[in-house]
Structures are given as C-alpha cells and as structure tokens.
C-alpha cells in the first residue's frame, strides 16, 4: 500500500495527529515516524509532505520554530491552539469515514457497533 492514493486524502490528519502526540517535529522526522509506525507500508514523500505543512502553516494551524542544528537550520512544526481543535475535528471525521467504509466493505458490520 506504500504511497497509495488512499493515504493522500488523510495526509493532513496524519500530520496533525503526529504533532499532537509529539508536540513538535521536523519534516524528515515526520516521514520517518510514519514509516516506522506503519512498518514501511506508508511512506510519505517530501514532495507531498512539505506542501501540506506549508498549507497548514498558512491556515494558522501550525507554528514554525527554526533552530540551528549543527551547521544547518531545522524547521520544527507544532500545533497552534486552532491546530489542536482542527486535529480533534479531523480525527473524528476520519473515524466516521472508516466506520462507513467498513460497512460498505463488510455489510455484516453495522454503524452501531
């Protein structure tokens, strides 16, 4: 399933969830964490990640903290208060979507369970 089109619609939710759990992260760290958690099944490319991070920042959902690490600057992303609220909302949306998809894929399951 690596780099499947299915995950692309969930990329923002994945980023928000990781930042909620880890307080602040830099881009490469996010890609590696997703790879680790999914045991390599899901690999987020930099070409997908950074536009999503920049969009979230522009929407006021992320703050950026630039720190010097060695000889280079590293951008750390963290949730704003608005980002915290949006994370909760996005997670609820995704959970409802997954429940609906489960019913469609396996009609024996119901929305009530």
Q: In a nutshell, what does this entry contain?
A:
This is PadR family transcriptional regulator. Pfam families: PadR. The protein is α+β, with helices and mostly antiparallel strands and 113 residues long.
Topology:
Elements: H1 5-8, H2 11-22, E1 24-26, H3 27-37, H4 46-58, E2 62-69, E3 72-79, H5 81-105
Antiparallel strand pairs: 1-3, 2-3
Keywords:
WH-like_DNA-bd_sf, globular, 113 residues, single chain, 58% helix, Arc Repressor Mutant, subunit A, alpha+beta, 5 helices, 17% strand, 3-stranded antiparallel beta sheet, Metal_resp_DNA-bind_regulator, Tscrpt_reg_PadR_N
Account of the protein in words:
This protein has about 110 residues and is α+β, with helices and mostly antiparallel strands. It has 5 helices and 3 strands, in the order ααβααββα. Strands 1-3-2 form a 3-stranded antiparallel beta sheet. A hairpin with a 2-residue loop joins β2 (about 60-70) and β3. The longest helix has 25 residues, at about 80-105. The protein is globular and about 55 Å long. The protein starts with a helix and ends in an 8-residue tail after the last helix. The mean pLDDT is about 90. This is PadR family transcriptional regulator.
């Amino acid at each position: 399933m690596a780099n499947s089109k299915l995950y692309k619609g969930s990329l923002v939710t994945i980023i928000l969830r990781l930042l909620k759990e880890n307080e602040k992260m830099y881009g490469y760290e996010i890609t590696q964490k997703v790879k680790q958690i999914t045991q390599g099944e899901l690999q987020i490319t930099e070409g997908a990640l950074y536009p999503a991070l920049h969009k979230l920042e522009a929407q006021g959902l992320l703050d950026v903290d630039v720190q010097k690490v060695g000889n280079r600057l590293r951008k750390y992303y963290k949730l704003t208060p608005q980002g915290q609220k949006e994370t909760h909302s996005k997670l609820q949306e995704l959970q409802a979507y997954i429940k609906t998809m489960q019913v469609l894929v396996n009609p024996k399951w119901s929305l009530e369970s």
